[in-house]
Amino acid sequence: MLKYMRDIRLAATRSENWVTYDEQFRLKIEKNPNLSWGNIHGEYWLLHITSPTVHNSVSVQSQGYRTNTQNHGNYNSNAATLSNNRTHQQSQVTSGSVNMSCKYYNNGNDCPYFPRCRVFRGTISSYISGVSYHHKIQGIQDTTKFFIIGKALEGIKRIQGGKRNDIRAPITVQLLSDMISCLDKVCKNKYEAALFSAVFSVAFFGLLRVGEITTSKSKSVINGSNLTISDILVRRKVLELRVRWSKTDQKGKSVTLLIPENGKNYCPVRLINEYLKVRPTCNNTDLFIHYTGMPLTRYQFSSILEKALHFLHISKGHFRSHSFRIGGATELARQGVSEEVIMRLGRWKSHAYSRYIRLQFF
């Protein structure tokens, strides 16, 4: 079954007719249960997956990888070496509309690099959940519940060990200060600098997840989860922030955060005030929007973070959008704030917050 799921993922990268192949193959299995899930049905594959536009000459478009080395002259040759050695990571090989992955797998062989580019247990479980959902909505037997699948997952868990280490680094207050100071040089105009200064500061001191302050697509309208203009209230020295929805509050009970003024260049109260003064009046009630009225997206948040780090000559490394939440929790712990308060401010329902405390970076 695991081999079959891998076949289907490959088929999906090659043709839009992968669903037809999947349906025809399952009907074949129902008629003849002795057939193996691990073998590709040649006739169906040729009919539904193989494209007639395949040519002998193909062009390789390898994904670029940023490096922190100063020897930029060797970048192209290094990228070519990475491209030649890349296997299960899906380097795109295009020929017409065909996308191919590992050349060893395509030839029906085991990949010699597999131990170094293995798929992790969490990813496998996610794929299996997707296959299980597809079974259920089609009203067919859920083969992912078979005994052999469960045992395979147990074996993978034993081989790969427990949970993977979270290597995301926290944003420190000093780094937050430096990034906010350089945003006027990183952003394309003063409005954008005010927008991202407020977003970065609120994300840090509010211990916010990026999904709580951004939208996933630039064309999305209010999705009921991100902050709106009515969720914020600026008092004399305190910023009141209502989080109506979160990962641990799926029913929208909401919680109100009180973020005090701190007098620094990264003060959330001052930066929010400055942003609200220039925020345009429009139909979009999202709190953080561009001057055009379009909402701030997750991609744009991460992009400006990366540009600010690059401007400061800091490698992106393990910094991610979630680094603001990690940094905020770590800063509270560094100041001696109690566990109960940190859990309440971060909306944690368990002691999972302790995995976010990384004092070694401060």
UniProtKB/TrEMBL annotation:
Domain of life: Eukaryota
The keyword Acetylation belongs to this UniProt entry's keyword annotation: no
Any single GO BP term: DNA integration
Alphabetical list of Pfam families matching this protein: Phage_integrase
Keywords noted in UniProt: DNA recombination
Keyword Cell division: no
Tyr recombinase domain location: 166-362
A single GO molecular function term of this UniProt record: DNA binding
Protein name from the UniProt record: Tyr recombinase domain-containing protein
Native source species: Mytilus edulis (Blue mussel)
